Amino acid sequence: MGGSDGGGVLQARVRMVALPESVPVARRFVDDALTQWGRETLIEDVGLCVSELSTNATLHSGSRFFELELEQSPETVRLTVLDTGSATADSMTAQSDLTDALLDDQTADDASTTGRGIFIVSALASSWGIDELPEGKRVWAEFDDDGDTTYDARPPAVTRREASPQPAELDPDAWVTVHFLDCPAALLLAHDDNLAEIIRELQLVGSDLDRPHFHRLAGLLAGHVQRHAVNWDPARIMAMDAIRDGHERADIHVLSPRHVTEEIAFLRSLVGEAEALAEAGKLMTMPARAEIQQLRDWLEAEFLNQVERGQPPVPYGVWLEQH
Description:
Layout lengths: L2 E2 L5 E8 L4 H15 L6 H17 L5 E8 L4 E7 L5 H7 L4 H5 L11 H9 L2 E6 L4 E7 L13 E4 L14 E10 H24 L3 H33 L4 E9 L3 H19 L10 H19 L7 H7 L1
Parallel strand pairs: 5-7
Antiparallel strand pairs: 1-2, 2-3, 3-4, 4-6, 5-6, 8-9
Pfam family, one: HATPase_c_2
InterPro entries: Anti-sigma-factor_SerPK (IPR050267), HATPase_C_sf (IPR036890), HATPase_dom (IPR003594)
Keywords: ATP-binding, Kinase, Nucleotide-binding, Serine/threonine-protein kinase, Transferase
């Protein structure tokens, strides 16, 4: 869920497709992180604000994706939502200037399509701001759990930046949305868990038996998983939410870099090497079940077909019938 910078600061980050389905995923991400960090008293306020900011980034920014980050220090929790859309800091600042009388005339359902959501952020956060970027904007809000329940709207701190090179990972054209339709939720989680079990055992066996090869393989696998976690974590959250809601299947949307073929081939070779060790009896973790192998084949095919070849998504059930 996050890492530490060594100074008591914890961070969690995720990158999501700018679709309405991502808003509850963003809320779940925040809830889980704050629970893990023991900051449950902030869940309601931070969760409400992330819902509003994610909705704004999804519906009103024109961005293809948005990036969400939580950072915890002993004093505060900082929420950041970054998008690459065209909405300006001035437009958001104007939205935060709504009066209480206007709020009284609106229902809660109106919040996502008006400035009320931004007004809520300005009232709940102890401080907040908007950083204009060369492409898009970064909205941040800080919260403390000192027991203060006086909610007063505050103007944002606005930072305007001169044009500068955009980081490659924030280039909208560098990403493609991949849709995994009719995805079996429990099987997707089993797929991820199997990979995590393999990595853990490779690390343990490599340490206990002094096998450098196992260490190397574990490091490569763990590095690959960590490198792509910011894009893949929403898939896990969507799958878990589907199971919580009693659904066996879910439509899952994730971001992929445009050039993914080499990454997929690399992961496949690493997993194949690890499973060969398992089949040879050198690991206690069993090779993935046949249905997990099928899911992997489908996931790989969808990445390649949608990202590299521009083909439409094929639902899992349809793909099974074809194979």
